[in-house]
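User: What would this chain look like folded?
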Amino acid sequence: MMIRFQRLFLLIVAGWLFWPRPAAAEAYVWRNVVMRGGGFVSGLVYHPTATNLLYARTDVGGAYRWDDGARQWIPLTDWIGPEDGNLMGIESIALDPSDPRRVYLAAGTYSRGKAAILRSADQGRTFERTEVTFGMGGNEVGRFNGERLAVDPHAGAVLFFGSRRDGLWQSRDSGVTWQKVDRFPEVARMEERQAVGIVSVVFDPASGGPGRPTPKLFAAVSTTATNLFFSTDGGVTWQAVAGQPVGLRPNHLVLSPEGMLYLSYGREPGPNGMSGGAVWRFDPQAQVWTDITPLPPPDAAGPFGYGAVAVDAQHPATVMVTTFAHWQPHDLIFRSPDGGAHWAQVWREDTVWDSAGAPYTQSRRPHWMGSMVINPRDSDQVWLTTGFGVWCSGGATQAAGPKPMRWEFMDAGLEETVPLALISPPAGAHLLSGVGDVDGFVHADPEVSPAAGSFAGPRFGNTEALAFAGGKPQVIVRTGTGRRQVRAAYSLDGGNNWQEFRSEPPQGNGAGAVAISADAGTVVWTPQGGPPYVTRDWGAEWQACAGLATGLRVVADAVQPQTFYAFNPRSGRFYVSTNAAAGFAGTAAVLAPGNRDHGVSICATPGKENDVWLVAGGAGLRHSTNGGTSFTQLASVQVADSLGLGKAPPGKTYPALYLAGKVGELRALFRSDDQGVSWVRLNDDRHQYGWIGLVTGDPRIYGRVYLGTGGRGVIYGEMKP
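Assistant: Here's the prediction, encoded as structure tokens.
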């Protein structure tokens, strides 16, 4: 028995020693490819006493802290890894009024995914976490409502959180453990697929004193029925506030230093639409409600609600509010010096919106103004969030004067886009990106938001696919979404100018995948919901690619103009065309079906004919050197999420491989300089960026890699000098 045990022990040790594992992390520097903004900043929270301590939350891109000295945002959640990618959507932020070091994040992008309360005692430099059972929806309806997470101003260990579906929760140990508040009223949920629930919790500091839990607090619920409740015993029991307005949903609840409550309302929670808005003031002492709506919606069913509301801490009667979904001619910003008795509309025709640091925003009007805060130490400084970033004005006290307000786009460091496509051609700009909601960019310098803004020429809502010709890299094609008649374009000058294709394929709905042959003579487009089609005259005529099923993505060989590849993840069959995509035939290779949860893609190796890599998600990584006739499985790779190729290492001719996936049971980002025989980890635990869905190397700079994240924009890494 002892001999058998010793043999087993030796086998285990040997397996551990010889199992393929990545080498220690290589020293890399990580930065954002600068776009500035691009996504919905859903909330802003100022610390009430610390100077210029401001935090921002986003719907899919994590949380940030403002560095006033550097005038830029510092990302706080880049340490979140792929297994926890759902935590990148921040449902709410809460600060401890008695301790400026403490910050709490309610993290969860979608209600059905993982959710957690993240706790920091050093202003977000490091976090501890408590996974919770109540779901969160940082990217669901009502995501700018708030704040639903709150810290007791007199007893910092006490927190409350208003959930979407599971009622009110309390913690008495600084967020480590949570208990449901059983006696909070059952309230109606939205009659929609996604619940919004309790959108705001506010403590009344005047009701208590230091060292003891604050007895009085309020909670607002997103329902058109009774929606505002209060407690006078520290949240144990609750009752409805008398005389409250009904018929609209509250989305923001703010308590002024003099004890007045201000609430903004809409019939819908937003942000996709809102109607029938209003603004009310409630005096808890006198038990009096006052309708202070600056401008009632002219049509109760039309798009016009109210979103953000802010109070000046130094002048508590000064209030600012914004409309929401008032598209024509634009949303409105109102300011009142007397608690809403009189209002001035301060977004005038001559208002200045300075977006010099982000040229792509110059054609975009501020919209989805979901959160507004006034600096508690500076009544002039007001911050405003929009659907594509943050704006700041330093002239709030003179807003009603003769000079127009000037707003500056303050998104330095705050990069919250969702890249959908990345290419790095061997000539011209180093990077082109297709981006959700803002089309895409040509990045001549990754440190500067492109001077020309988004793509010149045809504009799409999303650019979802990009490809360049292997032998003529200045010829680039892209597809996207939007209201255009033809949702594909081509460039003959490296992306500086674009022309629309002459038509779309007869089946499908735009977007989808696109490929272009090495000699730029053939384009294959697989539109959404349609089969692959081929054109040789920029869309004047289309021909169905024989032999391929609907929805299959096609990739061109990087050298041979007649060769194209496709893979069917459902059947595991690999297909090749040697007649310029006119027809495809399955090869002898029969592979395990891909895992759609991890993605399936084909990478044609630059400069290598018939050399392709198959990324099959949970089925790992495979390599073919004979045009897909057969494949070699890389035993070292357990999971392949995305693969990219870049400049060959010094002294070698084969490109470096960059992989987001799992090697040696470690989920991370890797590089291989020997065709996948060995791997070195590139990122560390502080630079994970949630989910990495796209990877590509730079063909001109060895070691440089570009990452497309699920909400933190495009990241690029380079070896430390």
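The first strand starts at residue 28 and ends at 32. If you want, I can go into more detail on any region.
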